[in-house]
Amino acid sequence: VQLVESGGGLVQAGGSLRLSCAVSGRAFSVYHMGWFRQAPGKEREFVAAISGRASSTYYADSVKGRFTISRDNAKNTVYLQMNSLKPEDTAVYYCAAEGSRWPLVIDAMDYWGRGTLVTVSS
């Protein structure tokens, strides 16, 4: 299973970005998917999660109401729509896949992408 993130970049505070994560390999709908991020000098943290059939989602408190996770199982892709971005959202964003555990456990994800950098200027 390979995960490839895209859509990162530089945006002004208050702006929006949509990240994508394309997944290849085994049947995509088997996996629960998550977005995580790591800011410079900080530990990787959870951002958002979506279950395999997209029946359930949950978010970190810091992004609730601003970010939306979604998935298209026909396209083997998971998305993270990020609105009202803040400078503190600056980080490398990673998507990850988990075959069974729900809710997601950051240290137990099965597969990780390499990340995409999001920089929010003030």
Task: Describe the protein's architecture and organization.
With 122 residues, this protein is mainly β. It has no helices and 11 strands. It has strands at residues 2-6, 9-12, 17-24, 32-38, 45-50, 57-59, 67-72, 77-82, 91-98, 111-112, 116-121. The strands form 2 sheets. Strands 2, 4, 5, 6, 9, 10 and 11 form a 7-stranded mixed beta sheet that branches. The radius of gyration is 13 Å and the shape is globular. The model has no long low-confidence stretch (mean pLDDT 95).
Strand content: over 45%
Order of helices and strands: EEEEEEEEEEE
pLDDT < 50 stretches:
none
- Give the helix proportion (percent range): under 10%
- Total DSSP helices: 0
Secondary structure elements and their pairing?
Blueprint: E1 2-6, E2 9-12, E3 17-24, E4 32-38, E5 45-50, E6 57-59, E7 67-72, E8 77-82, E9 91-98, E10 111-112, E11 116-121
Parallel strand pairs: 2-11
Antiparallel strand pairs: 1-3, 3-8, 4-5, 4-9, 5-6, 7-8, 9-10, 9-11
Brief overview, please?
The protein is mainly β.
Protein traits:
single chain, 122 residues, mainly beta, 7-stranded mixed β-sheet, 4-stranded antiparallel β-sheet, 11 strands
